[in-house]
């Protein structure tokens, strides 16, 4: 389904005095207003169609039920990059604080997944210093070992998913949960566990060494933080939006709800984009290819598009060189470097060694003049005859 907006009102424009690597607030607000109007109109149409539906008609799918809900359907932001993101530190699940939280219901059911032993965290939550209002919303605290033992089958995991609205997990075991919870939690759902810092930070060097030695044997060796600090961490996680990345060029984050105002959605978009580009995207804005926003089943509306398809002009020659064997000065073919298959995001590409010939002039090692001219011709065809 098409959104009734023109590209002029959605694609960010370049200003002479400003850097092109930033969002245009005016264009973001226009795109947010257009998308919300379209999604709300589509929601109203689906609600009217469902009220007139025959009793013998087929049941609606889960996606249609979400769209035809009460305004709690999510608005997604998708960010595409030019190079793959494979760094493990960038792929670790995290959270982004936004001006307008998505979880505002006072009746939220929270499940807290902790390290072993779980009794230490339960004692902190049961402490009188822990806020009573937040305590009433935490319906379950379960350790990693009991989670594996009690929820093995697909139906058991689905039951756990339906019993809670938000899942919080200790950041020390957040990377181990996909193998435990499976695709029930990590495929087509917005209830992926949000990392929470539960372990107490050790200030003394001796305590750090002892804690690091114990942590190799037991993930929960470090004592939990105080009740007030844990409550603050949980509230911060509830008000934030989770970020879960996979190796690739696409990042999807929930930035708002259908019930949001355009100004609220635009402010959340600005906060999420800034955090994603700074902490998760290699090379920052120069590696961003496009940013779009979309509803549950609507067309994606662009709010920023890159002019260049590569982060550097040298990447064109590098990619072309990887696809074919390179001939050396003796005319023998050699295979491309296997390290290049890891991609430029792992580290900067190694520069070709420069040697001096008999005539005193420097020449690139491993590339002949014929090979250079061939790469130049490929680059000219890609960029056009004007380059």
TrEMBL record:
Gene Ontology molecular function: RNA binding
Compositionally biased tracts (Polar residues): 1-12
Out of the domains of life, which is the source? Answer: Eukaryota
Q: What CDD domains has UniProt attached to this entry?
A: Ribosomal_L1
Outline the segment boundaries, as ranges, of region: Disordered.
1-25, 40-69, 197-226, 323-387
- Compositional bias (Basic and acidic residues): 41-51, 201-220, 354-372
Q: Name one Pfam family in it.
A: Ribosomal_L1
Q: From the Swiss-Prot or TrEMBL record, give the protein name.
A: Ribosomal protein L1
Q: Which organism is it from?
A: Capronia coronata CBS 617.96
């Amino acid at each position: 389904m098409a959104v009734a907006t023109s590209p002029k009102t959605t694609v960010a424009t370049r200003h002479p005095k400003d850097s092109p690597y930033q969002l245009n607030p005016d264009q973001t607000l226009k795109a947010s207003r257009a998308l919300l109007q379209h999604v709300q109109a589509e929601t109203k149409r689906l609600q009217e169609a469902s009220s007139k539906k025959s009793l013998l008609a087929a049941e609606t799918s889960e996606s249609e039920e979400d769209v035809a809900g009460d305004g709690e359907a999510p608005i997604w932001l998708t960010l595409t990059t030019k190079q793959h993101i494979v760094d493990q530190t960038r792929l670790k699940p995290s959270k982004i604080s936004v001006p307008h939280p998505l979880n505002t219901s006072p009746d939220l059911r929270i499940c807290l997944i902790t390290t072993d032993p779980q009794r230490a965290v339960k004692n902190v939550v049961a402490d009188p210093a822990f806020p009573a209002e937040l305590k009433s919303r935490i319906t379950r605290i379960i350790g990693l070992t009991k989670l594996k033992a009690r929820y093995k089958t697909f139906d058991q995991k689905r039951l756990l998913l339906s019993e809670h609205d938000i899942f919080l997990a200790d950041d020390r075991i957040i990377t181990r949960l996909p193998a435990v919870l499976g695709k029930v939690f990590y495929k087509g759902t917005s209830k992926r566990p949000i990392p929470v810092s539960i372990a107490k930070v050790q200030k003394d060097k001796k305590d750090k060494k002892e804690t690091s030695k114990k942590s190799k044997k037991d993930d929960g060796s470090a004592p939990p933080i105080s009740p007030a600090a844990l409550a603050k961490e949980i509230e911060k996680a509830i008000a934030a939006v989770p970020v879960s990345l996979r190796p690739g060029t696409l990042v999807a984050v929930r930035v708002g709800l259908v019930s949001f105002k355009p100004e609220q959605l635009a402010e959340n978009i600005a906060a999420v984009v800034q955090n994603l580009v700074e902490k998760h995207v290699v090379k920052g804005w120069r590696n961003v290819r496009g940013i779009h926003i979309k509803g549950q089943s609507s067309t994606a509306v662009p709010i920023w598009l890159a002019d260049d398809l590569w982060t550097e002009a040298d990447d064109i020659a590098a990619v072309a060189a990887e696809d074919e064997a390179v001939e050396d000065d003796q005319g023998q073919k050699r295979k491309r470097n296997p390290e290049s298959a890891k991609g430029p995001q792992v580290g900067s590409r190694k520069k070709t060694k420069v040697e001096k010939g008999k005539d005193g002039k420097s020449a690139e090692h491993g590339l002949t003049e014929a090979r250079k001219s061939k790469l130049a011709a490929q680059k000219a065809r890609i960029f056009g005859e004007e380059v």
